[in-house]
Design a protein that fits this description.
660 residues, alpha/beta, GMP Synthetase, Chain A, domain 3, seven-stranded mixed sheet, binds 5'-O-[(S)-butoxy(hydroxy)phosphoryl]adenosine, AMP binding, ATP binding, AMP-binding_CS, nucleotide-binding, 3-hydroxypropionyl-CoA synthetase activity
């Protein structure tokens, strides 16, 4: 452990922290020249990322921009993601190394070696084939974090069937919409899972979803709960473990997939209520996540690595499953929550498994900070070498707490900015190369180009706030929105004629990230947050529209606005609601609101607090002033309210928020 006074001096000094020497000496990437190399030899230099993979046939072109912004990467190449994440490690003499280490909700543990993973992925791939899944068919997966989820993902990849994972915390209704939209005819789900120790039925949510789907769906059910819940396998569904037994020892040849073939679909929230089906291609995606797992997370096959996200979101896809497994690392899967059974649960797992690299979200770090340093202090965290964060901006105070109390002042922190649509990390320091600046994510990665622009698309000056945009394509980028090329262009892209980028080498299209940001004189990007009506709840993206329309469906509700405020275990949804009668609501109305949101969106979006008000604060143009509501929810100073049409409401709102 670093000397305390020395550490404090370093943390209080200029806000620029050099990576600890001991880390740099062993890091995968240490040469600052890497930025220059990518600049000089772009896009061909991306072959480095592709070379981390085994290809069935070599690509002809690294990048084809003919049909921009429908860019294509490693065109003509063929590969299989499951082969790259499983078989090749078995063939390379590491079959007995742990691939997956699972920590269940009730402290159960399970370990799969690469050989175990190989066996079960093959058996399940054979089972999927028997059920009729063919190359190109979309398979929906609706499961909590259990080993069967990554196994099913890899089994799909093996036979060339794109998966569409739906977060288990989303409602049956949301699942149904996604199944319908993607015309998916196969569903793999689970009987249920534990919520704070109680058995919770997931299968019934899935059944609800299927009632509303017009086409036939074949389902497979994993028995997670054993005797805690009757395991119902009815009508069209099959039991996962029965299927494995039927296909015991089966070997399924991995299908050679075109680099541009769809690896998976991931639905995410946008500004409208319609979920967006983000498509990721096999070659570019896998190359970028493997390359960033190596250069940013610094992973090696020897590491035990833990990303505490849920596999049901992009972070889990890229940095629990595909990135780490492509590198042959041991990746942890955690089903539980950070404070069950106690608030030291995370640190207990780090210590017991001697975790080397830990990746989590700012919302979790803020909760750890609130609970106090005594919890990490109870445990020996000296196995940790590197820490990461993702999902929302991290404030310098939380950054420093993480650095000091979790990393002991000896682990670099990578603050990684990226999105469902980018597939992999985009803006972050390289931990073996760059100094860190708490609160700023860092420079764009080698090969990535960002620009902060004003509303007209013109670059702003250093340190001025504007819209974060990406001015060159990248391998892991979204290829399109499922079934909606037009919306893909509309949502994300600006044509070079409208706002030329400084780099025209590949057509000059500009990708609009939807975030506000600033770039400083060193090229470090500070991300300010979403500029559209999208919230981040515990690292999950949530459209305000989806929640608000569900709330106003409740009889008697006039208007609603939701924001994210500080909650007990991280971030919570706060709802501000006005009623038709002007009544400030009663218990019954509250319950209906929560019930509606759980039914329509999912339990994770259910408002933890509902504040009734006679009116919502609006600007003169009639827009709800969400920023103000956010400040009230967080107990922060309110800032400038002069743009309000109804400033008198502020006092009432503060009062109501206090009382609630
Ligand atoms: C949005 C994307 C990428 C996985 C998790 C969320 C915000 C993400 C950071 C960061 C500041 C961040 C942005 C982005 N975000 N990482 N390091 N600093 N903001 O994926 O659900 O697609 O959300 O998360 O607002 O646009 P997502």
């Amino acid at each position: 452990m670093t000397d305390r006074s020395d550490l404090e001096a370093r943390l209080d000094g200029p806000d620029r922290i050099a990576p600890p020497d001991e880390f740099v000496q062993q890091a995968n990437v240490t040469d600052p020249n890497i930025y220059h190399e990518f600049e000089q030899n772009w896009p061909e230099v991306w072959e480095r990322a592709a070379d981390l993979l085994d290809w069935d046939s070599e690509w002809d072109d690294v990048l084809v921009a003919e049909d921009a912004p429908f860019y294509e990467w490693f065109v003509g190449g063929e590969l299989n993601a499951s082969y790259n994440c499983v078989d090749r490690h078995v063939e390379n003499g590491r079959k007995n190394q742990a691939a997956l280490k699972w920590e269940g909700k009730l402290s159960e543990t399970r370990t799969y070696t690469y050989q175990d993973l190989y066996r079960e992925v093959n058996e399940f791939a054979a089972a999927l084939r028997e059920l009729g899944v063919e190359e190109g068919d979309i398979v929906t997966l609706y499961m909590p974090v259990v080993p069967e989820l990554p196994i099913a993902m890899l089994a799909c990849a093996r036979i060339g069937a794109p998966h569409s994972v739906v977060f288990a915390g989303l409602s049956g209704k949301a699942l149904g919409t996604r199944i319908e939209r993607s015309a998916s005819e196969f569903l793999v789900t689970c009987d249920g899972y534990y919520r704070r120790g109680n058995a919770f039925n997931l299968k019934s949510k899935a059944d609800d979803a299927l009632l509303k789907v017009d086409h036939d769906v074949t389902s497979v059910v994993v028995d997670r709960l054993g005797d805690a819940l009757p395991h119902v396998v009815d009508g069209d569904s099959r039991d996962y473990h029965d299927l494995l037994a039927e296909h015991a020892g089966a070997v399924v040849e991995p299908v050679a997939r075109d680099a541009e073939d769809l690896l998976f679909l991931m639905y995410t929230s946008g500004t409208t209520g319609e979920p967006k089906g983000v498509e990721h291609a096999t070659g570019g995606y896998l190359a970028q996540v493997a390359w960033t797992a190596q250069s940013v997370l610094d992973l090696t096959p020897e590491d035990t690595y833990w990303c505490s996200a849920d596999i049901g979101w992009i972070t889990g896809h890229s940095y629990i499953v595909y990135g780490p497994l492509a590198l042959g690392t041991t990746t942890m899967l955690y089903e539980g929550s950070p404070d069950y059974p106690d608030r030291d649960r995370i640190w207990e797992i780090v210590e017991r498994n001697a975790v080397d690299v830990f990746y989590t979200a700012p919302t979790a770090i803020r909760a750890f900070m609130k609970w106090g340093a005594e919890y990490p202090e109870r445990h020996d965290l000296s196995s940790l070498r590197l820490l990461g964060t993702v999902g929302e901006p991290i404030n310098p105070r939380a950054w420093k707490w993480y650095y000091e109390h979790v990393g002991g002042g000896e682990c670099p922190i990578v603050d990684t900015w990226w999105q469902t649509e980018t597939g992999g990390m985009m803006v972050t320091t390289l931990p073996g190369v760059d100094d860190m600046k708490p609160g700023s994510a860092g420079p764009p990665l080698p090969g990535i180009d960002t620009e902060v622009v004003d509303a007209a698309g013109a670059p702003v000056e250093d340190d001025a706030a504007g819209y974060l945009s990406i001015t060159r394509p990248w391998p892991g980028m979204v290829r399109t929105l499922h079934g909606d090329d037009e919306r893909f262009i509309e949502e994300y892209w600006t044509h070079p004629d409208e706002a030329p980028t400084s780099d025209q080498s590949d057509g000059g299209w500009r990708y609009d990230a939807g975030d506000g940001a600033m770039i400083d004189e060193d090229g470090y990007v500070t991300v300010l947050g979403r500029i559209d009506d999208v919230l981040s709840v515990d690292g999950h993206r949530l459209g305000t529209m989806e929640v608000e329309s569900s709330i106003v469906d409740v009889e008697g509700v006039a208007e609603a606005a939701v924001v994210v405020g500080a909650g007990a275990g991280g971030s919570d949804v706060f709802a501000y609601v006005s009623t038709e009668s002007g009544r400030t609501g009663d218990q019954d109305l509250r319950e209906q609101i929560v019930g509606n949101v759980e039914r329509d969106v999912g339990e994770f979006a259910a408002p933890a607090r509902i504040v009734f008000t006679t009116e919502l604060p609006k600007t003169r143009s009639g827009k709800i002033m969400r920023r103000l509501l956010e400040s009230i929810a967080r107990g922060e100073p309110l800032g400038d309210t002069s743009a309000l049409r109804n400033p008198e409401i502020v006092g009432e709102l503060k009062e109501a928020a206090r009382e609630d």
